[in-house]
């Protein structure tokens, strides 16, 4: 287990809301200047230290590692944001991610002629990840995500998880034994 | 009132650790009028500090000092820097324990006699019997308010229990109930009844669950005989030329090294820190470590079999609601070699919140196989397996040759190889656990591997003969008469039950023994 305090804290304020003219085209994440934008979800993420294209690919990779179709991209963006924060502080952390993503893209280009984020099928992208799952880069990304994705309180209701209960008096009068289908 | 004792007061008993063993012993001695300084490595967090938030509370109270691992156990691969999941705070692991309070069985005190010679296992009978322990179990259950003892009703079953119970009954298991839990099912001892909050592992917000932090230590402090010193990390135990221990050296909150003199020292740092401290206290007179003439200090480390089974159903279970571990099947907790292994295991309900489930369901897992399981979280039920693992001499705690912690003390390495008996038992338990859930319509089951160890046992075991172990049946070390082992390190074998009740029973008995020996001026 990775120590919690070594991990990027999920930060719901990490994404800035912007008003976009929704064009009705595909819900892609676009790179513009020093930031990435998600027009359909109306959020943007300014890259501090990593290349914006790296952030975009990291988000794609995060979803491929922990694919939940019920989760919007913004949850994955929040989950990877800590890599950018760490990269701004630590050159080694920055190099690990930039080199890792560059390696990922090189493998994708060799196999499919496009960068990782543009490979069309999840199965093809997962095959690339499978080939590097023992590498320190993959291990670092997966080990971080398993906390930074699932520890977002905004994610919990989407799995039915109710979180804190003490302030509500526990479940003694709120269904601790309400199962009816047995 | 906390009673501040002077560092050069050599009349005090120094208890190291404030959990189930140390907290109980320190309180009992204080209640008997004996002056006690209890040194606790962690801080003091009261109930209001506990959070119904798994990771946040984990970082607040867990023992996260550096440790290394080796051996073939899967924990060394999945959690190489975190072999044990225990607490560093006043109250120790009684803050995050689940509350299961089970007596060991008669045959489990006679492991060597019952199981016979098993290759690779360093089995030994305990120097005490169940008959000898029964009155102490009685006292422990009474002070802890264990359900289904002393006329205390059982806890009501939550959703997770109802699935577990229905599956157990369909499968033909006979002994399924909400168990013996030291969680108030009705108000008792100044504490209220369980509010079915969940989050038993994050510290009980209602105080219904017994913990030395608020159930024992304040009673000891009220006598004026007990001083608990938090943020006091013990480095070394010193002795005189006669071989008696005389003082305890520790680093205080600021890192300043202090020396507390002592008439008696009792070590209760849990089964990794206790032997680590004895090994680190080696001297010219005791070159292999304090109380280690047998060479058994740090050896025979046990951690219970452990494994979990989670299952996904078609409809919601919401297993996180309510008491985490109030559910037990005891049918497999017998010695029946026909199953292909010696000794037995308990099956107990267990749930994790979504964040911990992600970390522990299948450590290292990713991709759709993993996430489709997580997608079924709301429809999941879960159980934990507590089985007796074999003591093996090679499994244990050693001081790292080069790596040191922030106090300059060598970090402990925890080595563990599963014994073939452990593996056979775990496979059996995974199969039976899945069968319980299949019996009530599980659509998918998961054989989840062990978590970092919560039950750490046996590294300073008690033995009738001084050459076989570290302490006698009262936890008094064979080599040093005024040095005691007061935690689960004393266990000669692991049994199949959660250890806390036995640790408390032994600590209560030890307090009586120490008081009597002090009275006779033997120590």
From TrEMBL, chain A:
Domain of life: Bacteria
InterPro entries per UniProt: TAT_signal
Designated name of the protein: Twin-arginine translocation pathway signal
Species the sequence originates in: Prosthecodimorpha hirschii
From TrEMBL, chain B:
Keyword Oxidoreductase: yes
Sequence intervals crossing the membrane: none
All copies of domain Glucose-methanol-choline oxidoreductase N-terminal, residue ranges: 88-305
UniProt domain Glucose-methanol-choline oxidoreductase C-terminal: residue ranges: 391-507
Family: Belongs to the GMC oxidoreductase family.
Name this polypeptide is given: 2-keto-gluconate dehydrogenase
Keywords noted in UniProt: FAD, Flavoprotein, Oxidoreductase
Gene Ontology molecular function: any one: flavin adenine dinucleotide binding
Keyword presence, Oxidoreductase: yes
Species whose genome carries this gene: Prosthecodimorpha hirschii
Listed InterPro entries: FAD/NAD-bd_sf, GMC_OxRdtase_N, GMC_OxRtase_C
């Amino acid at each position: 287990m990775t120590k919690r305090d070594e991990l990027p804290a999920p930060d719901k304020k990490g994404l800035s809301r912007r008003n976009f003219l929704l064009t009705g085209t595909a819900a892609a994440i676009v790179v513009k200047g020093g930031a990435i934008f998600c027009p359909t979800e109306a959020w943007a993420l300014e890259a501090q230290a990593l290349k914006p294209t790296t952030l975009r690919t990291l988000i794609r990779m995060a979803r491929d590692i922990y694919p939940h179709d019920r989760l919007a991209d913004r949850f994955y963006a929040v989950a990877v944001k800590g890599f950018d924060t760490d990269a701004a502080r630590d050159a080694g952390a920055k190099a690990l991610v930039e080199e890792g993503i560059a390696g990922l893209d090189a493998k994708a280009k060799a196999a499919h002629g496009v960068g990782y984020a543009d490979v069309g099928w999840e199965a093809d992208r997962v095959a690339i990840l499978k080939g590097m799952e023992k590498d320190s880069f993959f291990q670092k990304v997966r080990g971080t995500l398993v906390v930074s994705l699932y520890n977002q309180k905004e994610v919990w209701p989407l799995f039915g998880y109710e979180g804190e209960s003490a302030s509500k008096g526990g479940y003694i009068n709120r269904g601790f034994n309400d199962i009816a289908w047995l | 009132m906390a009673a501040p004792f002077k560092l050069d007061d050599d009349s005090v008993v120094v208890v190291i650790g404030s959990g189930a063993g140390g907290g109980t012993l320190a309180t009992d001695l204080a209640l008997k009028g004996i002056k006690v300084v209890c040194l606790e490595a962690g801080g003091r967090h009261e109930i209001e500090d506990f959070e119904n938030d798994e990771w946040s509370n984990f970082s607040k109270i867990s023992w996260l000092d550096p440790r290394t691992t080796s051996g073939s156990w899967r924990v060394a691969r999945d959690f190489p820097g975190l072999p044990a999941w225990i607490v560093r705070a006043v109250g120790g692991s009684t803050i995050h324990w689940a509350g299961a309070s089970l007596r060991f069985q008669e045959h489990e005190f006679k492991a060597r006699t019952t199981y016979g010679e098993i290759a690779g296992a360093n089995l030994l009978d305990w120097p005490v019997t169940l008959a000898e322990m029964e009155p102490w179990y009685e006292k422990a259950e009474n002070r802890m308010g264990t359900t289904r003892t002393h006329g205390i009703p059982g806890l009501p079953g939550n959703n997770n229990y109802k699935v577990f119970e229905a599956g157990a009954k369909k499968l033909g298991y006979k002994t399924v109930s909400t168990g013996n839990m030291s969680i108030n099912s009705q108000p008792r001892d100044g504490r209220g009844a369980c509010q079915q909050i969940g989050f038993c592992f994050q510290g009980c917000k209602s105080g219904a669950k017994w913990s030395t932090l608020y159930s024992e230590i304040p009673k000891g402090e009220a006598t004026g005989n007990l001083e608990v010193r938090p943020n006091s990390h013990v480095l070394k135990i010193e002795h005189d030329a006669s071989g008696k221990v005389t003082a305890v050296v520790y680093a205080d909150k600021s890192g300043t090294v202090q020396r507390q003199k002592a008439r008696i020292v009792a070590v209760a740092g849990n089964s990794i820190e206790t032997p680590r401290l004895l090994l680190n206290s080696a001297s010219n007179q005791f070159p292999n470590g304090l109380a280690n003439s047998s060479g058994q200090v740090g050896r025979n480390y046990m951690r219970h079999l452990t494994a979990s089974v989670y299952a996904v159903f078609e409809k919601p279970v919401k297993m996180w609601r309510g008491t985490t571990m109030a559910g037990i099947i005891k049918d497999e907790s017998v010695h029946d070699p026909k199953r292909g292994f010696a000794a037995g295991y308990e099956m107990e309900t267990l749930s994790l919140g979504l964040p911990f489930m992600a970390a522990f369901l299948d450590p290292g897992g990713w991709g759709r196989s993993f996430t489709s399981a997580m997608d079924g979280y709301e429809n999941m039920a879960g159980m934990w397996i507590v089985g007796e693992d074999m003591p093996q001499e090679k499994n244990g705690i050693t001081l790292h040759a080069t790596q040191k912690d922030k106090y300059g003390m060598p970090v402990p390495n925890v080595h563990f190889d599963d014994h073939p008996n452990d593996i056979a038992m775990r496979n059996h338990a995974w199969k039976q656990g899945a069968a319980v859930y299949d019996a009530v319509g599980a659509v998918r089951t998961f054989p989840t591997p062990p978590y970092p160890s919560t039950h750490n046992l046996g590294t300073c075991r008690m033995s009738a003969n001084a050459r076989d172990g570290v302490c006698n049946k009262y936890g008094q070390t064979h080599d040093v008469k005024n040095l005691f082992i007061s935690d689960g390190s004393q266990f000669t074998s692991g049994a199949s039950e959660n250890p806390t009740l036995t640790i408390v029973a032994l600590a209560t008995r030890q307090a009586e023994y120490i008081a009597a020996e002090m009275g006779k001026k033997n120590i």
